[in-house]
Structures are given as C-alpha cells and as structure tokens.
C-alpha cells in the first residue's frame, strides 16, 4: 500500500488560520502506474482535507474519517473492518482473471473514459468516473525532451526483460539523439529498466511512486507511453500527441485492442521513424472524439464523493 506522493500532500493550516479539515487516508498500489496517476489526480481536488497513511496512526488519535483506496482490495477490506468508510477506485483494466472484488460496503468507482465503453457490465454498485484528468491541463511553451511512461504491472518477467533490453533501449537512445533528453517513469521492474539503460547515462529512470508524472509531461515535447488509461487521460486532457509503446502483458493488449477500435493512435514501435520525434507534430486524433462524452471532471467527482464521506460519514 502506498501513500500519495508527498509532493501532493495538503499544506498545513497557517498559524492563526482556519482549523484543518478532517483527516482522510489516501492509498494506491505503488507497483501500478494507473493507480498512482489516479490517486494523484483525485488528491489535487481535496482542498483542506488532511491526508495520512497507515504509519501516521497511533493509539491516541482516532482513525481517519474516510479513505480513498486505488485498486488495493486487501487495504479496502482492512479499512472497512476498522469502521472507516472507503471510496474504492479501480484505476484501469482488471488484472489476471480470478482477482478479488472490492467488498460490497465500499463505494466503488471505475476509471473509464466516456468514449471507451466498458468491456462488460460494471460490478454491482460500481460507477464509471469518466476521464480522470490532471488538474493542470496546460503545457510548457518551452517543453523539450521525451517522457517515456512505462508500466510493467502484471507483465511476465521474461516479456518485460525482452522489451527492456530491446525496444526500450533503442527508443531511449533515439530519444536522446532526437530530442536531447529522455526521462523514463516506471511503476515496477526498476532494477530491470535501469540495468537495460545503464550504458545510456543521459537517460533518467524514475520510480512512478516518487514522481509527479503529470508535471513531467507538461514539460516534455514527446510523449511515449504504455497503453494504460492514465496515459490516455493525460494526453486527451491536454490535447497532446501520444505514441503507444508495444503493449506488454494481457491487460495492456486487451486495452490497446479496445482503444484501437475507437481511436487511431500512432505506435512507438520504430525508433527510426522521424515523425515519432517531431515536437511540432499534430496534437493527435483527440478531435475525433465527441466532446459530449467526457467533461474531464472524473477526478473532481471522486474527490467530491470522498469529501462527502469525510464530512458526513455513512
């Protein structure tokens, strides 16, 4: 269970100012990119609510009044047993078949853009959120370099290793040559990724749980990403170009297939394609989507539900 990146923590109330709001727990799976991106985007809309994690609990203070848990079914169950009401957010496609469903007492929300129908009926009581967009939708006018957002969540080790030592290494080298810099943000398999890129010292490799990937994207000229919902939402909200890395693992392949039926996104499969590295390339096919299907306020809606639990618990 991972707490929200400290960079997204709510500031303390100033001396003599208003009393801080109720205390809520924020938790995500630190090994899953979608989970971390979703948590950060919702947390940006929590206002004066104080944020905490398991390590802040003690025998004197009461538990948090409510919690937001992204994807971690076990954490949701433990919190409910302690009497803490939970908003359980499913940040992306499910993992391997047979995974646990969140307990029925949780308020379940499912991250899903309006333009991308659910592959099946949602679980009983679950509500789609629409796009979980970043709070800041602008991009730097002086953006440069390449951001490569990589998810190895539930990717078989052999498949991840082959990608890291092959396509990833070639893409990183081309990014350095074409755009001057390359930052890789990965959710898991950091040792594997760093080892594969060790001979390219100009490449930064960052752990997603310790990084504001949305802020990095605002400053990057080129965006390459695994086919995950968090990356789609980021590019859609900013009307930014996005080239998809080869899908790794069953969940990514399934999602890439669903998206491909609706939206023609370019592939980052050929690092020698000059069009891949052109910062002035068209913003992408986002204009093809019906704007009425998504208002980009999914994160606000989830935050509002958590605030309601915190201020008026069930």
- The name of the CATH topology of the largest domain is Rossmann fold
Give the helix level as a range of percent.
25-40%
Pattern of helices and strands: EEHEEHEEEEHEHEHEHEHH
CATH class of the largest domain: Alpha Beta
| Contiguous uncertain segments of 5+ residues | 2-18
Gyration radius, rounded: 20 Å
Major β-sheet profile? 7 strands, mixed
**Total individual domains:** 2
C-alpha termini separation: 24 Å
**Estimated share of beta-strand residues:** 15-25%
CATH architecture descriptor of the largest domain: 3-Layer(aba) Sandwich
Shape verdict: globular
Please report the number of helical segments.
Answer: 8
Query: Given the helix and strand composition, which structural class is it?
Result: alpha/beta
In total, how many beta strands?
12
Quote the average pLDDT. Answer: 88
Q: Can you describe what's shown?
A:
Strands 1, 2, 3, 4, 5, 6 and 7 form a seven-stranded mixed beta sheet that branches. A five-stranded parallel beta sheet has the order 10-9-8-11-12, with helices on both faces. Helix 1 (33-43) packs across helix 8 (298-311). The protein is 30% helix and 15% strand. Strand 11 (222-225), helix 6 (229-238) and strand 12 (243-244) form a beta-alpha-beta unit. It contains eight helices and twelve strands. The protein has two domains: 2-133 and 296-311, Rossmann fold (3-Layer(aba) Sandwich), CATH 3.40.50; 146-292, 3-Layer(aba) Sandwich (Rossmann fold), CATH 3.40.50. The chain has 314 residues and is an alpha/beta fold. InterPro entries: CGA_synth-rel (IPR031013).
């Amino acid at each position: 269970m991972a707490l929200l990146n400290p960079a997204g923590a709510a500031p303390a109330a100033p001396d003599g100012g208003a009393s801080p709001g109720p205390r809520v727990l924020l938790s995500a799976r630190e090994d899953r990119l979608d989970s971390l991106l979703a948590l950060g985007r919702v947390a940006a809309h929590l206002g004066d609510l104080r944020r905490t994690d398991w390590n802040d609990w003690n025998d004197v203070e009461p538990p948090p009044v409510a919690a937001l848990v992204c994807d971690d079914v076990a954490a949701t169950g433990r919190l409910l047993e302690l009497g803490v009401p939970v908003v359980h957010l499913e940040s992306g496609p499910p993992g391997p078949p047979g995974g646990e469903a969140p307990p029925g007492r949780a308020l379940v929300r499912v991250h899903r853009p309006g333009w991308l129908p659910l592959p099946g009926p949602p679980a009983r009581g679950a509500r789609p959120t629409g796009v979980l967009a970043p709070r800041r939708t602008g991009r730097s006018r002086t953006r440069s370099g390449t951001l490569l957002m990589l998810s190895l969540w539930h990717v078989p080790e052999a498949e991840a290793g082959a990608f890291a030592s092959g396509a990833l290494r070639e893409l990183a080298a081309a990014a350095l040559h074409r755009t001057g810099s390359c930052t890789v943000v990965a959710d898991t398999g950091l040792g594997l990724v760093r080892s594969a890129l060790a001979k390219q010292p100009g490449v930064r490799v960052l752990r997603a749980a310790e990084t504001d990937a949305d802020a990095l994207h605002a400053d990057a000229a080129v965006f390459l990403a695994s086919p995950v919902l968090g990356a789609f939402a980021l590019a859609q909200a900013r009307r930014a170009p996005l080239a998809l890395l080869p899908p790794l693992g069953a969940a990514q392949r399934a999602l890439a297939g669903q998206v491909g039926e609706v939206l023609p996104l370019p592939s980052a499969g050929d690092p020698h394609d000059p069009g891949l590295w052109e910062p002035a390339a068209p913003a992408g096919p986002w204009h093809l989507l019906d704007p009425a299907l998504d208002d980009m306020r999914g994160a606000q809606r989830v935050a509002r539900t958590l605030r309601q639990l915190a201020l008026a618990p069930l």
